[in-house]
């Protein structure tokens, strides 16, 4: 049987994928408190926002301030989402450590959400790479392939198209590529197959898995991806997020449940789970009008849980 | 990488493990409607109740009536839980197809819940086997090893003790053995390891995995167990059940979410998921004062879901 990676990074995307999907607009000082507490709990990669026009996503209008704050925390890898060259220029200017450029493998979803075809996104990534290099910037470029297991508009998405897009992103100069199950259509057998192929193509440039728990399979999907050697996963505290096409449905994989699963598997994440649960309580108060998710906050850690597993990876 | 079993049975235990854990006492006619609808949706193994004294579990006092009804459905494997020889005699008398005898691998939990040591339960299984054979009965005996990943009283439970109990049950004459994570302490790496060893000992007599979603890991655990070749899982509609030590926490693996995961993996269960979701709506009305679980009922099936996968296994 497959072995598992000894260390796994949980990239916190609650401040971006989480907050952009809910109504509550969290004030900047609370987001800063969230970042500070997540850092104190051992999280070392955080996607703090998106460089998109504030009129489109007022929830994320303070992204530049958050990048500036997050950059003050030693050893924190600060990510932002950028939809295009204009956003990338802001990411480069603010010295974000990584910018994620989303691509929808679903042609229909791509046109509806990004107003570009997948190939136009690939061409934009080439322009972003040129701009990054011209600026002498160190900001990493991650091509994130969404709707990789199908989408609510187009329905099925072929694996071959996902892998073609991935190769296109790499050829265009992406430093990293990732795969996202944007709408929670994927199950663990499909994940194991697609992630295995993706790793075979991209090797260590295959960076991250992003799963939504829309149909309860996020953690099973992480487990399947772990077996292919993938060692980085997006997740959101309290599983916030969700899908506009499935109101009330579960959101992203929950950071705290994922941290528990990994710790239970003997995989080091550097996360102090009790501290993360305290942060969850705080965020739950801030987002008291929103539906939150996850299971661990209700049950607590098992009596058998070894608190020594809250190792200080990346500390 | 491991292959998966082509067919998997979801044994519905909502009428036993689910109903015994909640306050609402469901009238017999509704339980019969549940069994009838589950059968119509393709479920072919149902644990309908427990032969325990009605004063202990008034929710399950009508078990004999339910066995009698369930036995009228062609091809349905009718299970009951029996805590001791007295219960087993009732199961034999009512011609249940299978009786599950619970054993707690946690010595402390065993004394607290069953008032017997694990070895005393093994001795009781030997008496049950003798009684079954003396009666010329065909009722199968399943030894179900609970708290196999630890428990809330004792804490850690050694794998070696779980496997020793399993061998003891087989030696005492159990036809089948199963493993249960009674309190949701297990994660997928531990499941893969323990189930792999259990299968190596018991072979095809290893019958069933039983997971609680207390910490959100039930489906990841099923996936890990599938990789060891186990092809039968307990689950409850709407994930009812739960743990008295974690009020409000998630219950058993949800039958409908599990059915979706397996269908998505191309594994046949014989279950018509849309019909099962209709039954869930009905049960949710009956149990309107209870906390229900699961994700699929909120999100619905993906647009890409092949309804032809609702094959008629065992029909």
From TrEMBL, chains A, B:
It holds the Pfam family HMGL-like. The keyword Transferase applies. Residues 8-277 form the Pyruvate carboxyltransferase domain. It comes from the Bacteria. GO terms for biological process: ketone body biosynthetic process; L-leucine catabolic process. Keywords: Lyase, Metal-binding, Transferase. One of its GO terms (molecular function) is acyltransferase activity, acyl groups converted into alkyl on transfer. Belongs to the HMG-CoA lyase family. This is Hydroxymethylglutaryl-CoA lyase. It comes from Paraburkholderia panacisoli.
């Amino acid at each position: 049987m497959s072995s598992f990676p000894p260390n796994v990074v949980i990239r916190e995307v609650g401040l971006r994928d989480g907050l952009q999907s809910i109504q509550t607009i969290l004030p900047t000082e609370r987001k800063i408190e969230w970042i500070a507490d997540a850092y104190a709990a051992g999280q070392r990669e955080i996607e703090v926002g998106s460089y998109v026009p504030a009129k489109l996503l007022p929830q994320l209008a303070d992204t530049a301030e958050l990048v500036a704050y997050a950059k003050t925390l030693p050893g924190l890898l600060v990510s932002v989402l950028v939809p295009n060259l204009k956003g990338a220029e802001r990411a480069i200017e603010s010295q974000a450590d990584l910018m994620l450029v989303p691509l929808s493998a679903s042609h229909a979803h791509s046109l509806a959400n990004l107003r570009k075809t997948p190939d136009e996104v690939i061409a934009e990534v080439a322009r972003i790479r040129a701009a990054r290099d011209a600026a002498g910037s160190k900001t990493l470029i991650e091509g994130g392939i969404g709707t990789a297991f199908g989408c609510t508009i187009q329905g099925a998405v072929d694996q071959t198209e996902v892998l073609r897009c991935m190769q296109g992103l790499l050829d265009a100069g992406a430093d990293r590529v990732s795969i996202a199950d944007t709408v929670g259509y994927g199950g663990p057998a499909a994940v194991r197959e697609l992630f295995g192929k993706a790793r075979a193509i991209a090797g260590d440039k295959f960076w991250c898995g992003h799963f939504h728990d829309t149909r309860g399979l996020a953690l099973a999907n992480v487990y399947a991806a772990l077996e292919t050697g993938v060692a980085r996963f997006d997740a959101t505290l309290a599983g916030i997020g969700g899908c506009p096409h499935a109101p009330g449905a579960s959101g992203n994989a929950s950071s705290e449940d994922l941290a528990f699963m990994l710790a239970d598997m003997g995989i080091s994440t550097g996360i102090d789970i009790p501290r993360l649960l305290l942060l969850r309580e705080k965020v739950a108060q801030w987002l008291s009008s929103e539906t939150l998710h996850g299971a661990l906050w209700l049950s607590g850690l098992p009596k058998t849980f070894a608190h020594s597993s809250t190792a200080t990876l990346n500390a």
